[in-house]
Design goal:
The protein is an alpha/beta fold. The protein has helices spanning 5-17, 63-67, 83-93, 107-111, 128-137, 152-165, 179-189, 224-228, 255-272, 376-389, 399-418, 434-437, and strands spanning 48-53, 73-79, 102-104, 118-121, 141-144, 169-171, 196-204, 279-285, 299-306, 310-317, 329-335, 338-342, 346-351, 356-361, 422-423. It has two domains: 5-174, NAD(P)-binding Rossmann-like Domain (Rossmann fold, 3-Layer(aba) Sandwich), CATH 3.40.50; 176-211 and 239-369 and 399-437, Dihydrodipicolinate Reductase, domain 2, CATH 3.30.360.10. A hairpin with a 2-residue loop joins strand 11 (329-335) and strand 12. The model is unreliable at 21-41 and 369-373 (pLDDT under 50).
């Protein structure tokens, strides 16, 4: 049987971007639209219509930009699989805007609405790439919270979908919107500390004991089937849905690497101007509350070695808040002529003798290690997303760059899970280790794997 022109075009594209034929099965009510035939035209009044999927700790960070009338954005939907979160968000947001917002538990129904231009996605990690791919296939732009993928294969998928459907996809590593971070990293690239050769990224927190998960009935109001979404079905366990999914195995979460290291490792990679590492080594273990429900490491040191003898080191302590570097989180860049400390709201420039040369503070309200977050940088990041949709700006964190930084977190998680380091193809990002490549992707619930 001869291939249709459309099928041949799809195959040629997949071959060009270097991935296999992979995909998300959409409900029949959602029609896929090719990049060439679909380019939604923003109305004459330049208004952008949006929906928010996921109403937990992060969604509030998007509201200042969405509800600011100067941004000319209309919020059409709030979406969550838990009734009480949906009800709480509806009550909160209705006080901030006069928009006639609809509550919806199933994102697929929202994606079927052609009036929606863009989706803000703040779901659990396992939903991110499949949800973003579904949205792009339905003609939507996507603001995608970190991590942008659950595993390396999904990083390839989400970038391939963006290229194919030609949608704006902003990754939610909002420090890329910091004027101070942009300035000092530009200065680093221009030699202000000589040749930058090493970055230390770190995070310290005092997360407490986690309940041991026990099989139980899903809590009232939770659509457990929709929560699982792309993940293979299994019985509900007590307290999974409310944040602890991060630590209960690998079906939903990506451990602290995907949860927080994403931000600082992105800054480190950006500052050193590197792509994929040559090799990765990890030391990690569960050091605290040995008998609680936390199923993966809570302490990790990782090293990413790049060409030209550059290195990024990660020091992550999820349950020991000792401030090894004088702050709860941040990135230190070492150069032949000095060093720079960078976090979300300021930087310090030192000479080689550790003399403070310059310190700049932004006054940003977005920093620290507390749950949730939000503040000035999230607002700037969201406004940049709107400007990019309108064709007035380039994304500050395009998914193609975000996905490369996210790969560092996947490499570290894989090295921990197989108990050894490995070497990597610096051009493709593929791993030269058969055991590691077994974790390149994951199993999907039938019908949910992203497909072009």
């Amino acid at each position: 049987m001869k291939s249709t022109n459309k099928e041949q075009s799809r195959r040629d594209f997949l071959k060009k971007v270097g991935i296999g034929a992979t995909g998300v099965a959409l409900s029949s009510s959602i029609n896929a639209v090719s990049a060439k035939s679909y380019k939604r035209i923003i109305g004459a009044n330049d208004r952008i219509t949006v929906a928010i999927q996921g109403l937990g700790r992060r969604y509030g960070a998007f509201l200042p930009a969405i509800t600011d009338k100067n941004n000319n954005v209309e919020l059409l939907y709030l979406c969550d699989v838990m009734d009480k979160q949906l009800d709480k968000a509806m009550a909160k947001v209705s006080k901030l805007t006069s928009d006639k917002i609809k509550a919806e538990k199933d994102i697929r129904k929202i994606l079927a609405d052609k009036n929606v231009d863009a989706i803000f996605m703040a779901t659990p990690d396992h939903w991110h790439t499949p949800g973003a791919c579904m949205a792009m296939k339905a003609g939507k732009h996507v603001y995608l919270e970190k991590p942008c993928s659950h595993n390396p294969k999904e990083g390839e998928m989400v970038v391939a979908f963006q290229k194919y459907f030609n949608k704006e996809v902003q990754m939610g590593n909002q420090q890329r919107s910091s004027a101070e971070s942009n300035q000092i990293i530009s200065d680093i690239h221009n030699g202000i500390i000589g040749t930058a050769y090493k970055a230390v990224a770190f995070y310290s927190n005092a997360r407490g004991e986690t309940p041991v998960p026990k099989v139980a009935a899903p809590p009232a109001g939770l659509d457990w089937d929709l929560f699982q979404g792309p993940s293979p079905r299994k019985p509900y366990t007590h307290d999974t849905w409310n944040y602890n999914w991060h630590w209960y195995g690998w079906d939903f979460g990506t451990a602290e690497m995907g949860n927080n290291a994403t931000h600082e490792l992105d800054i480190a990679r950006w500052a050193l101007d590197v792509k994929y590492p040559e090799k990765v080594n990890v030391w990690a273990d569960k050091m605290h509350y040995k008998n609680d429900g936390w199923e993966m490491y809570d302490t990790m040191e990782a090293s990413f070695h790049f060409n030209n003898n550059r290195v990024i080191q990660w020091d992550g302590k999820s349950r020991n808040a000792y401030r090894t570097y004088g702050a709860g989180r941040g990135t230190i860049i070492y150069g032949t002529e000095g060093s720079v400390f960078i976090d979300r709201n300021h930087y310090k420039l030192f000479d080689r003798r550790a003399k403070l040369i310059k310190e700049v503070r932004s006054g940003s309200s977005e920093d620290g290690t507390q749950l949730g977050g939000g503040g000035d940088l999230s607002t700037l990041h969201s406004v940049n997303f709107f400007d990019a949709i309108r064709g007035k700006a380039k994304l500050t964190s395009p998914i193609e760059q975000g996905a490369i930084s996210q790969m560092l977190t996947h490499y570290a998680n894989i090295a921990y899970r197989i108990g050894k380091g490995f070497e990597i193809d610096t051009e493709s990002g593929r791993i030269f280790d058969r055991d590691a490549m077994k974790l390149w992707s994951r199993e999907y619930e039938p019908g949910w794997e992203p497909k072009l």
